[in-house]
Design goal:
The chain contains 1 helix and 12 strands; from the N terminus they run αββββββββββββ. The protein is mainly β and about 220 residues long. It has one domain (about 1-220): Beta Barrel (Porin). The protein has a 12-stranded antiparallel barrel. It is globular and about 45 Å long. The relative contact order is 0.14.
Length: about 220
């Protein structure tokens, strides 16, 4: 995996020059994301995720994070990358990033991956929006298996100034195994100072159902 992180370092150095030029007119913004889930029937921990990234205008990087599933001692991943907001308008936002992902733990078999990550947001009106995130796991060594993750595709409706409610669909496919469909409902509370808390009170999964809690916080640096 050393070659992957070496390439990532070169990518950050190459983009930092462009970022610095753009940052003369655009403030730098830091983002922190934390997520967790709880599976019901049986009641077991799901996943835990932490991620930090920085935006210099339309450029993103570094963007690094950690995720584990169930027992952290069995399987976990560390990922790092960067990218760019390709379009940011009132109606459409399109972001593309590229990550290198290293899996570890006794069930991971030292698999590593390249991950193109795509984010699309469409504002149909001031109150109605949609958001989609998709990324594949593209194998970089023989122990890795191709995977497809539609992390979420959701439609949300704003209620008042701080609340949003919505419905969505997620998908996961591992190699040649059957596709896993995971529809969900979501409720979000936004604040100016403390970030946003998003709750998926119900998400259907192959083994039953789970709940997800998602938190995001952004901080804009002074010019």
């Amino acid at each position: 995996m050393r070659h992957a992180f070496a390439f990532t370092t070169v990518f950050f150095v190459a983009t930092s020059g462009s970022c610095a030029q753009e940052n003369q007119a655009t403030p730098v913004t830091d983002f922190f994301i934390a997520r967790t889930s709880q599976t019901f029937s049986p009641s077991v921990p799901g996943y835990r995720l932490g991620e930090f990234f920085r935006m210099y205008g339309s450029w993103i990087g570094p963007d690094c994070g950690y995720i584990d599933f169930g027992k952290a001692t069995l399987y976990r991943e560390v990922f790092c990358g960067g990218g760019k907001m390709l379009h940011g308008g009132k109606r459409l936002t399109l972001i593309e990033e590229f990550y290198f992902d290293q899996a570890s733990g006794p069930t991971a078999k030292s698999a590593n991956y390249f991950q193109p990550w795509t984010f699309v947001q469409v504002n149909f009106s001031k109150k109605l929006t949609s958001e989609t995130v998709y990324f594949p796991y593209l194998p970089l060594n023989h122990t890795a298996t191709i995977q497809h993750v539609l992390e979420h595709a959701k439609v949300e409706y704003r209620i008042g100034h701080r609340w949003k409610v919505g419905v969505g669909y997620a998908l996961y496919k591992f190699g040649n195994e059957p596709r896993q469909d995971k529809p969900f409902v979501t409720v979000t509370r936004e604040t100016e100072r403390w970030g946003a808390v998003e709750l998926w009170p119900y998400q259907k999964i192959p083994t039953g159902a789970q709940m997800q809690l998602r938190y995001s916080l952004s901080h804009k640096h002074s010019s």
